[in-house]
């Protein structure tokens, strides 16, 4: 008799995939070597904006090892190929063609102008230096406000404007709330602030890469991508390749964070070059190319107005954004601010709301989704303005939040944006966070330091957040003019020996899918965790999928697996009844066994799988297969939430910041694997804190990226971050059978405003109400001496230019 297995969901299992990922015993795209494979390198423009007068490739063609050199006219003679944008947010949105290679004009520093193909990567890169390109420089457009000013030079002359689109939401017009202008004009208190979301680089561990093999009857592409299924469809549409003749494989991928969600010009180049030469071609970028030409994230100017009564009841919120698209529309970058539009109201009962976003073209690398995609920007703005409102009202910032947030007994709650939050308990998460943080004790210490004039001041930062996870409901996405659905697909194959193969359309790049999915299937089918194999990332074996982004893997892809498992059990039930000689209604299924009610007569799912394989004794008309698939399209987003508290010490003589403690209590619904949840939170915190204190791109006046290496673009190491105190509360989601809510982006979304609020709180008595991110010591020092600094504050030079000048751990200096 089979022993009863312990439940897997909720168990902190170490990840199955770690053995190969951590030791490097796996296949990354750059590990792939095919017979006769050639190597591709891309020549990139040193200018941000220029006409291409001429390109002389003759010397490069005769360089050692070079097989071919291509320009735009060679790859795209008719100039008909344009990179796709899947999100036309308005009917009149401008859509300048982004070429595979620039033909007549370059619009950002790093845009590709020629390709060299050689027998080795070194030879290809050496030959790039032999290409002679003559440019005629054009005016550079870097500032968003200047870009949309009357008479501004244009990035794309044929578009007539640097404004791509204007998108608006108004609660009065939508019938979801009141008139925000009336709320503001009649308010007892109005606070206005401008916040700057700096431009960030998704610094994944593995640079982008792809290999294309055109031999045989089917083209195979390996790519370090988050979206193999979308890449296949978009490649077919962009290049006219029959979709059934293209196979896309995402092998193990070393991180993405949204930075590998695009359909890349280099992928299209590789396909075109491989087809022209009839040989396999590999392209992999250097880290400097990643910084220069891979898409960037964030980059917004946020003008926020909030109104309230004198006793702290918020009455209205007005948001006006400028969003920098860069030189072109990304795959979904046009819609990133729209994802944030529905989250500025956050956890609060705001009765009137207006949002307007202007997407702007500049001569910079394009922006697209980066971890959180719109929701971190929204959370930052609302959590910063709530602190500013609390100061204006003379209230404790937590007291103000509690006065305005949705109470647990009010769920489900329809927000001023029309979204329905299904469940939550902000009170419980906050109470636990306050206890772990010693909120009252730290406030008392802060008062003592302030009164004594201590040169090291203490600040407390708060972020009480929610987000919409599981980018999915297809009807909602359709209403927003998104170019695809949000469903996810899964298949389950029952093998004759009782083992299980699960095929998922969610393509992992470090999230632990193989472990978590195995736990789900083990519980659903009553099989051992070790008996489940997860197959993903290959459009030939996983023929349907919408891939991985927007914290959708578990709450959409995981539920598709649950639905497929339910179908396996349903298929097995009549066979079990036949084998046990009973009616189907007399059977109950639990722990992998069908048991006749009231007896000990049973048969296991593994026994049924073997019986199906033999097919010797099946009921009449029953197909000899338990294999099942399912496609799940949720009816709603899921809404994780949490309370993050940060204590920061600021040396008022140097501007140095030390994160003394960081506590977060997140509610992600039911956690399938708490260990993975904690890892996701830790990673997210590192990225959010990095935005607050360390990261940010800079360009010089000519549009050259001056933070193009890790010597200039600051990333924190573990030594630069504090030890995090993490915990969870649990209010299960009511919109899916697992009760899960998603966790992949929570830490990033919540942490940035918590840290910035802490630093501002520490130095507010110096007349500071904002400091532009990243909060370098120089910027903090300057703000204390000259008052607040917002967008356009002091730069990253001097004391702000070195990682060693920031102490976030109490260790390295």
UniProtKB/TrEMBL annotation:
<feature type="domain" description="Aldehyde oxidase/xanthine dehydrogenase a/b hammerhead">
    <location>
        <begin position="23"/>
        <end position="139"/>
    </location>
</feature>
<keyword id="KW-0560">Oxidoreductase</keyword>
<dbReference type="InterPro" id="IPR008274">
    <property type="entry name" value="AldOxase/xan_DH_MoCoBD1"/>
</dbReference>
<protein>
    <submittedName>
        <fullName>Xanthine dehydrogenase family protein molybdopterin-binding subunit</fullName>
    </submittedName>
</protein>
<keyword id="KW-0500">Molybdenum</keyword>
<dbReference type="InterPro" id="IPR036856">
    <property type="entry name" value="Ald_Oxase/Xan_DH_a/b_sf"/>
</dbReference>
<feature type="compositionally biased region" description="Polar residues">
    <location>
        <begin position="724"/>
        <end position="737"/>
    </location>
</feature>
<dbReference type="GO" id="GO:0016491">
    <property type="term" value="F:oxidoreductase activity"/>
</dbReference>
<dbReference type="InterPro" id="IPR046867">
    <property type="entry name" value="AldOxase/xan_DH_MoCoBD2"/>
</dbReference>
<feature type="region of interest" description="Disordered">
    <location>
        <begin position="787"/>
        <end position="813"/>
    </location>
</feature>
<dbReference type="InterPro" id="IPR016208">
    <property type="entry name" value="Ald_Oxase/xanthine_DH-like"/>
</dbReference>
<feature type="compositionally biased region" description="Gly residues">
    <location>
        <begin position="789"/>
        <end position="804"/>
    </location>
</feature>
<dbReference type="GO" id="GO:0005506">
    <property type="term" value="F:iron ion binding"/>
</dbReference>
<dbReference type="Pfam" id="PF01315">
    <property type="entry name" value="Ald_Xan_dh_C"/>
</dbReference>
<feature type="region of interest" description="Disordered">
    <location>
        <begin position="724"/>
        <end position="744"/>
    </location>
</feature>
<dbReference type="InterPro" id="IPR000674">
    <property type="entry name" value="Ald_Oxase/Xan_DH_a/b"/>
</dbReference>
<dbReference type="InterPro" id="IPR037165">
    <property type="entry name" value="AldOxase/xan_DH_Mopterin-bd_sf"/>
</dbReference>
<dbReference type="Pfam" id="PF20256">
    <property type="entry name" value="MoCoBD_2"/>
</dbReference>
<dbReference type="Pfam" id="PF02738">
    <property type="entry name" value="MoCoBD_1"/>
</dbReference>
């Amino acid at each position: 008799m089979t022993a009863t297995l312990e439940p897997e969901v909720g168990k902190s299992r170490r990840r199955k995939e770690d053995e190969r990922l951590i030791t490097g015993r796996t296949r990354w795209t750059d590990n792939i070597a095919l017979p006769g494979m050639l190597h591709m390198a891309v020549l990139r423009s040193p200018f941000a904006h220029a006409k291409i007068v001429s390109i002389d490739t003759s010397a490069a063609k005769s360089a050692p090892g070079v097989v071919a050199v291509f320009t735009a006219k060679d790859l795209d003679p008719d100039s008909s190929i344009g990179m796709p944008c899947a999100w036309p947010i308005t009917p009149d949105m401008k859509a300048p063609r982004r070429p595979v290679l620039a033909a007549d004009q370059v619009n950002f520093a790093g845009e590709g102008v020629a390709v060299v193909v050689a027998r080795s990567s070194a030879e290809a890169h050496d030959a790039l230096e032999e290409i002679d390109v003559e440019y005629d420089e054009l005016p550079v457009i870097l500032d968003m406000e200047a870009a949309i000013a009357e008479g501004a030079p244009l990035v794309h002359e044929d578009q007539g404007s640097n404004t791509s689109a204007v998108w608006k939401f108004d609660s009065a017009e939508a019938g979801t709330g009141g008139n925000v202008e009336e709320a503001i004009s009649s308010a007892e208190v109005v606070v206005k602030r401008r916040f700057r979301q700096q431009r960030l680089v998704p610094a994944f561990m593995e640079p982008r890469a792809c290999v294309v093999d055109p031999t045989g009857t089917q083209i195979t592409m390996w790519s370090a991508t988050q979206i193999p299924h979308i890449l296949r469809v978009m490649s077919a549409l962009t290049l006219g390749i029959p979709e059934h003749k293209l196979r896309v494989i995402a092998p193990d991928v070393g991180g993405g964070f949204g930075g590998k969600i695009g359909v890349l010009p280099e992928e299209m180049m590789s396909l075109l070059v491989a087809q022209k030469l009839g040989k396999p071609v590999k392209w992999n970028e250097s880290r400097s190319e990643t910084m220069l030409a891979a898409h960037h994230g964030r980059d917004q100017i946020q003008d926020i107005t909030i109104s309230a009564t004198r006793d702290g009841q918020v009455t209205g919120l007005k948001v006006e954004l400028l969003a920098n698209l860069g030189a072109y529309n990304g795959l979904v970058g046009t819609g990133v601010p729209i994802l944030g539009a529905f989250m500025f109201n956050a956890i609060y009962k705001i009765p009137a709301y207006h949002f307007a976003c202007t997407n702007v073209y500049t001569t910079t690398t394009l922006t697209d989704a980066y971890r959180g995609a719109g929701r971190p920007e929204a959370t930052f703005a609302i959590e910063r303005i709530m602190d500013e409102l609390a100061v204006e009202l003379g209230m404790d910032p937590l007291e103000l939040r509690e006065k305005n947030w949705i109470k647990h007994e009010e769920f489900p709650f329809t927000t001023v944006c029309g979204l329905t939050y299904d469940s939550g308990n902000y009170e419980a998460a906050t109470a636990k966070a306050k206890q772990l943080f010693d909120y009252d004790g730290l406030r008392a210490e802060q008062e003592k330091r302030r009164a004594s004039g201590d040169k090291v001041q203490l600040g407390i930062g708060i972020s009480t957040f929610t987000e919409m996870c599981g980018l999915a409901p297809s009807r909602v996405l359709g209403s927003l003019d998104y170019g695809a659905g949000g469903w996810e697909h899964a298949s389950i194959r029952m093998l004759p020996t009782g083992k299980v193969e699960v095929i998922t359309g969610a393509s992992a790049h470090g999230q632990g899918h193989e472990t978590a999915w195995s736990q789900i299937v083990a519980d659903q089918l009553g099989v051992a965790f070790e008996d489940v194999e997860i197959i993903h990332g290959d459009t030939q074996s996983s023929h349907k999928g919408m891939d991985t982004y927007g914290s959708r893997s578990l709450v959409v892809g995981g539920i598709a697996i649950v639905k497929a498992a339910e179908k396996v059990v349903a298929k097995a039930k009549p066979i079990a009844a036949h084998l046990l000689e009973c009616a189907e209604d007399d059977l109950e299924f639990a722990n992998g066994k069908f048991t006749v009610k009231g007896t000990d007569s049973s048969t296991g799912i593994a026994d049924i799988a073997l019986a199906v394989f033999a097919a010797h004794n099946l009921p009449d008309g029953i197909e000899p297969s338990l294999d099942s698939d399912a496609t799940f399209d949720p009816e709603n987003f899921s809404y994780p939430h949490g309370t993050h508290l940060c204590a920061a010490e600021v040396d008022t003589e140097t501007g140095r910041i030390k994160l003394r403690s960081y506590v977060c209590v997140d509610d992600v619904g039911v956690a399938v694997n708490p260990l993975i949840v904690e890892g996701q939170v830790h990673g997210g915190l590192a990225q959010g804190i990095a935005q607050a204190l360390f990261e940010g791109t800079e360009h010089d006046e000519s549009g050259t990226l001056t933070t193009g290496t890790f010597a200039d673009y600051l990333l924190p190491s573990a030594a630069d971050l504090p030890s995090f105190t993490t915990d969870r509360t649990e209010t299960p989601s009511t919109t899916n059978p697992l009760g899960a809510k998603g966790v992949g982006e929570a830490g990033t979304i919540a942490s940035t405003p918590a840290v910035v609020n802490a630093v501002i709180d520490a130095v507010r008595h110096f007349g500071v109400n904002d400091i532009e991110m990243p909060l370098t010591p120089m910027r903090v020092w300057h703000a204390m001496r000259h008052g607040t600094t917002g967008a356009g504050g002091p730069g990253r030079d001097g004391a702000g230019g070195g990682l060693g000048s920031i102490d976030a751990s109490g260790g390295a200096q």
